[in-house]
Write a structure and sequence with these properties.
The structure holds two protein chains of two kinds.
Chain A: E1 3-6, E2 10-12, E3 18-25, E4 33-40, E5 45-51, E6 58-60, E7 68-73, E8 78-83, E9 92-107, E10 110-120, E11 124-128
Parallel strand pairs in A: 2-11
Antiparallel strand pairs in A: 1-3, 3-8, 4-5, 4-9, 5-6, 7-8, 9-10, 9-11
Chain B: E1 9-12, E2 18-23, E3 35-39, E4 46-49, E5 63-68, E6 71-76, E7 85-93, E8 98-101, E9 105-109
Parallel strand pairs in B: 1-9
Antiparallel strand pairs in B: 2-6, 3-4, 3-7, 5-6, 7-8, 7-9
Classes of the chains: A mainly beta, B mainly beta.
């Protein structure tokens, strides 16, 4: 079955970096973008960015620009999210999710897409504490 | 402060119906498809609705979605205690070139 399996919990000190992995199975890894979403305690879902496993292209939320790096290993079907210069506010559960991107309408030459996240990993808890 | 606005909480009795609103703008909901996610504590978020009103395989017909202009609505009928969760709307924002979520709505089934 289609699934995303994430790495285990991490405890880091302020200023350190953390790298979370997300291993895909049950589908062709390079066919769908992987998004990263986090949830801090008591907060809502927060989108961090996307990565295209085929090209390696990425797009990051402005809030995380310069601190986040999303990469992949196509031979193992694994996506990675590395967050640097950690601070206590980065304590959260980090999720990877498969993004579906499908053409819904074509008007002249412009395509209109539907985007949605259909498969999610179970989450990786990252705790930042001195 | 989220780009998409949801009520912080809603509640209703078992068997009743509830709706959750999601308000945005022309750069997000107004020109893009909306999806909805159910998030139970300790679990991964789950896709409930995509393309404004479509249900993935396995999602009961008790869950429905609609969109009008720059607002979207999730409806849940025949409420069950197992529906208690946080619900999030989400869509692409063309101006921000970013995915945006609503702030989330906590559903309590009294």
């Amino acid at each position: 079955q289609v699934q995303l399996v994430q790495s285990g919990a991490e405890v880091k000190k302020p200023g350190a970096s953390v790298k979370v992995s997300c291993k895909a199975s049950g589908y062709t890894f390079t066919s769908y973008d992987i998004n990263w979403v986090r949830q801090a305690t008591g907060q809502g879902l927060e989108w961090m960015g996307w990565m295209n496993p085929n090209s390696g292209n990425t797009g990051y939320a402005q809030k995380f620009q310069g601190r986040v790096t999303m990469t992949r290993n196509t031979s193992t079907g694994t996506a990675y999210m590395e967050l640097s210069s950690l601070r206590s506010e980065d304590t959260a559960i980090y999720y990877c999710a498969r993004l579906r991107k499908e053409v819904r309408e074509v008007i002249i030459i412009q395509k209109f897409y539907s985007f949605y996240m259909d498969v999610w990993g179970k989450g990786t808890t990252v705790t930042v504490s001195s | 402060q989220s780009v998409l606005t949801q009520p912080p909480s809603v509640s209703a009795a078992p068997g009743q119906k509830v709706t959750i609103s999601c308000s945005g703008s022309s750069s997000n909901i107004g020109n893009n498809y909306v999806s909805w996610y159910q998030h139970l504590p300790g679990s991964a978020p789950k896709l409930l609705i995509y393309d404004n009103n479509k249900r993935p395989s396995g999602i009961p017909a008790r869950f429905s979605g609609s969109k009008s202009g720059t607002s979207a609505t999730l409806g849940i009928t025949g409420l069950q205690t197992g529906d208690e969760a946080d619900y999030y709307c989400g869509t692409w924002d063309s101006s921000l070139s970013a995915w945006v979520f609503g702030g989330g709505t906590k559903l309590t089934v009294l």
